[in-house]
Amino acid sequence: VKEVANLSLVSSACDVVSAAYASTKESQPYLRSVCDAAEKGVQSVSEAMASCVQPVLATLEPHVAAASEYAAKGLDKLGEKLPLLPKPVEQILSDTKELLSSRVAEVKEAVSS
Questions:
Q1: Is 40 found in the same domain as 72?
Q2: Does the keyword Transmembrane helix apply (predicted)?
Q3: Which end of the chain has fewer CB atoms at under 10 Å, N or C?
Q4: Which residues 6+ apart lie within 8 Å of 86 measured at CB?
């Protein structure tokens, strides 16, 4: 999970969503109240689950470690096949706009000639 979260694409997407969430909470007082209540609820549930799950995780730790290693290898292979994964969202959008602009220019040129 940490490796996936550290991918530029994922972390920048999370930053964009987080900024939009914060902006919405700031500009909408009614939504802020609802969001604050939901955040407190999620925090309470997370704390309760952590205490219940901890003994199970301790028992499963060797299996979790093996699965984590396997997942990391799979993520490395995926990164090789999808070169956009290490790129931030902003760069992917910029590259896509540039590609579309060049394709549209090529089509215009082809049509005019």
A1: yes
A2: no
A3: C
A4: 7, 8, 9, 79
Q: 40 lies in which domain range?
A: 1-82
Q: At what angle do helices 89-112 and 8-27 cross, to 10 degrees?
A: 100
Model confidence at 76, pLDDT cuts 50, 70, 90, reads confident
pLDDT class of 20 with cuts at 50, 70, 90: very high
Contact 7, 15 (CB under 8 A): no
In the chain, how many domains are there?
Answer: 2
Contact 86, 79 (CB under 8 A): yes
**Same domain flag for 27 and 43:** yes
Same domain, 78 and 89: no
Q: Are residues 76 and 87 in the same domain?
A: no
Query: What SS3 class is residue 51?
Result: helix
Average pLDDT over residues 54-61: 84
Query: Do residues 64 and 57 touch, judged by C-beta distance below 8 A?
Result: yes
What is the rounded radius of gyration, in angstroms, for the C-alpha atoms of the chain? 22
End-to-end CA distance of the chain: 52
On whether the pTM is more than 0.70, the answer is: no
